[in-house]
């Protein structure tokens, strides 16, 4: 097979869109069938069409599910391979529909001479649909034995490299080897993938940056990832120097799976604290919004392969082994421990607990036996060939006694939440483990039977096929809207990602809006302030000279009416924009308005009773005292509780609690309680930015200067009210039919606006473009000037 694995390892831009894709099938060594070549006709074309139409799953894992050995023959040494039936990635294909073709990409467990690699690759693809990734030995040592096993694995199990005995410290060379290996895997996937049809499922922590390479090459690739190990809490994960690169790589998937909710919660917390992303739960599914894409989160522990267990139980060797074990442990109580050979499994703690059990219960000495089975990682399924728990399988079913068992599990392992009848223990508490052993030994047989039946029903119904089928279905659901959105890539290197937007949601082009701007004569420009004109993370919220300059330039054009529509108080806005004499200001979401600097502030026409403040203020003060980093902003018409400086998780939790609290106590008051961008606000009913927009349009129409150009820019939920008001005006023909309307949100996110700009920098740049257009127009002495003051 051809390989592009060793060139330009760290460059993500080497996959140009016009490069010929390597075909899915190689007909013979050294001869490639180019299916996309129009010259290929006849049976070859027919075979190609059939192959391309077949549904496929590409399973990518560190190890291929194969066992290989080299034997001598008359032609010299010859490689032979067979399926490794204990491999999870082989067993999971039972969860796919029978007509689905499964292709595997991964490393071989044996070392193949470079001269034989091409022949072996062709053999494995033809016979097993396996694509091997031949990694150089030096790369394997740095990638797998270095970064994966000696750095990531301890870190993900809460062992920081504080000392030489606690793992190795971060090494940039090993990290680059990890990236290089992931890119080789990605190259191999690209050799066989049909990006429009195939689903790709990547497995475990060895390949966490691979999704970035695939997403960079194919923006609409259908991509899932399942983490088989733990995912640490944010306090541990944030010590990783490449933490953002790995998080963003996982977010380049459509579906990310975890064994338990704890692991998923840690991942979501890291995304919130390090990337500022919040998740939502809709109809039972957890999703993260990331540049217009929704990344689904899957929580489901792996199952076991019941069919393989049943087949092992039917072997004659199993019956003989059962007989030997029964004779060996006749009359004794057997405790069976099964663990991987791993430093984090706490096997020594188990031995200490068993010793404590015998010390405290001398009568058990000689009667209770602990049989400990330790396996190499990845071959646990093979333990059923030796496990004494299968004794009853070969008894006469008519006389089979009730099966009874007790399971003791660590509360930290992935299957613990699923085995609800198990005795859960903290393995670090040796006394509690010893007590759990005693409880299991002395438990009544009737209770053991009920627990055994409960567990047996669960593992037979939630086997590996169920796990794979559930993940596959969720991956299809997560990718269902791929071709309903427009996608393009942004960013460089491992920070690259894909922006996905609805077909009618597009970036606002300066050239496009300037063209409309030049052809209109009565313009209304509405601008939010925080997050639109001013970055949210700025401590000093006063406008920069650049902002003042562009606003004055726009206001000096007699065809323009420019308004800042903000939730800020009138005193702050009046002070900040004192240099803009012709700028209109709408403060506190429209409760106060003025047309120019020299005009008076006018309050809304509503008769507002503000007695509710006496109820709200003590409640907000209580939450402020309980939430470090929060604060209260008191406006004349509203009260706002801010939590942007608080802990992200705790602040959001407190905001939800405060929202519920205020809604319950203010149910009969004429106020609105809203949860905004890191705020909770209480304000009078009938006061909103949407009302401001409607009043301005009505005033312009009343003065016979209806707006033929409307630009509205905002970033928050409150700004959606402006977008909604504009859409309503268009629907009710309150604007001229020829009006140019630009409703624009800041950032790619679900919005009623049809346009977006990425950030405040782009907003200022666009306004400068409009300002330049005004300056280029020939100055004309305006006639019949219309005053709008006192009309909002």
Automatic annotation (TrEMBL):
Pull one GO CC term from this UniProt entry. cytosol
Q: GO terms for biological process?
A: trehalose biosynthetic process
A Pfam family (short name) is Trehalose_PPase
Task: State the SUPFAM superfamilies in the record.
Answer: HAD-like, UDP-Glycosyltransferase/glycogen phosphorylase
| CDD domains in UniProt | GT20_TPS, HAD_TPP
Query: Which stretch is the leader sequence?
Result: none
The entry sums up its family as follows: In the N-terminal section; belongs to the glycosyltransferase 20 family. In the C-terminal section; belongs to the trehalose phosphatase family.
Give the protein name, as stated in the record: Alpha,alpha-trehalose-phosphate synthase [UDP-forming] 9
Question: Upper taxonomic classification of the species?
Answer: Eukaryota, Viridiplantae, Streptophyta, Embryophyta, Tracheophyta
